[in-house]
Amino acid sequence: MSEVNIAVPTTETSLVWRRLRNEVQDMAEAEPMLASYLHATVLKHRTLEDSLSYLLAGRLSSVYFSAMSFREIIDEALGASPEIREAISCDLLAVVDRDPAARGVAQPFLHYKGFHALQSYRVSHWLWLEGREALAFFCQNRISEVFGIDIHPAARVGKGILVDHGTSVVIGETAVVGDNVSMLHEVTLGGTGKETGDRHPKVGHGVLIGAGAKVLGNVRIGDGAKIGAGSVVLNDVPPHTTVAGVPAKIVGRPETEAPALSMDQNIESQLGD
What we know:
This protein has 273 residues and is α/β, with parallel strands linked by helices. It folds into two domains: 148 residues, serine acetyltransferase, domain 1 (Orthogonal Bundle), CATH 1.10.3130; 106 residues, UDP N-Acetylglucosamine Acyltransferase, domain 1 (3 Solenoid). The two termini are 25 Å apart.
């Protein structure tokens, strides 16, 4: 899969963190009832990673597993993986750039469950790669319970990902998602039955997957493809094509090289192209 290059430089993390703190400070001054929450979640921390660790641990904690225990796991993963640390900023900026409802970085950082679930998955994936499968599965289950998004810890997901709304998104064990992909609620990257082995979709870079789309089986979705809302994809999709329908068929070509970035889901004008 070829690269769609909007990766965030490592030095930009500090700029994202500064922007987040400034926005949260303004928020706390404008709404005093939230001030203590905002201070505990963001303002008292020294880095973006520390703040995110605190936030996710609080969301994921339960009577069976404390916030302190979750935070220990998250801190360990963030400390060991520069890839996760880079992905945090890339994913957060993807939300800001592509979701017109996002008002700055503070709103999605604090409140968007698609972003929260994705960062939590990254921790479970790190655990999986470390051979700690029992704990990875435990985290997957808790992520699904809390955020309504089910991503298998063995799945491989790139950076610069927007999971918009997020409700009922499912990504299977052997699925691969490239960089700078956007997907909306109720998207499934699943299998087709009881087959074992490599059985889930491989999604290229810059792909846009509309709400309710189901991509099933070990199929390849080429770079820059667009999948219409509600479609059922059972076969490979060539790069830079638009598919729609049940079963999905080619109906045109996206107007941009990376439709995930423009978020233009209109396909009617492309029919007959």
